[in-house]
Amino acid sequence: IFTFNDTVTFSNTVFTNYIESTYSNTTFGSSYTVNLNNGSVHLLSLTSSTTISMPSPIAGKSFTLFLYTGSDGYTVTWNGASWVDGNSAPTVTGFPSKKDIFSFISDGNNWFGLVVGQNF
Known about the structure:
By secondary structure, this protein is mainly β. The protein has 1 helix and 9 strands; from the N terminus they run βββββββαββ. It has one helix at residues 84-87; strands at 22-25, 31-33, 41-45, 50-53, 62-68, 76-79, 81-82, 99-106, 111-117. The strands form 2 sheets. The protein has a 6-stranded mixed β-sheet with strand order 1-3-5-8-9-7, with no helix packed on it. Strands 2-4-6 form a 3-stranded parallel β-sheet, with no helix packed on it. Strand 8 and strand 9 form a beta hairpin. The longest helix has 4 residues, at 84-87. The chain is globular, with a radius of gyration of 16 Å. The protein starts with 21 loop residues before the first strand and ends with a strand.
């Protein structure tokens, strides 16, 4: 295991068996703020309608968010994320035991949200 506290450049290097850090949370209630220190893949189980707030934008940072639906009718409000089509945020899947997958990438000023897939 390597820990780097500065920028490291690799040339002609192949990484195999790369795994991103995951973070699972089922106790956040009606609001959740993404903390990238916890990992770049967040697994969230909705237990109510929730507001999800983005971290401070850093150019080149990205993360993936899995939303597991616990019950019908939960909604998500996105705080600090920009979406395609006039910034119209997607509606999360309303079926129990389903999941939606979203990916986010930052240009340093904004977080851009992408729907990877829904109703898995």
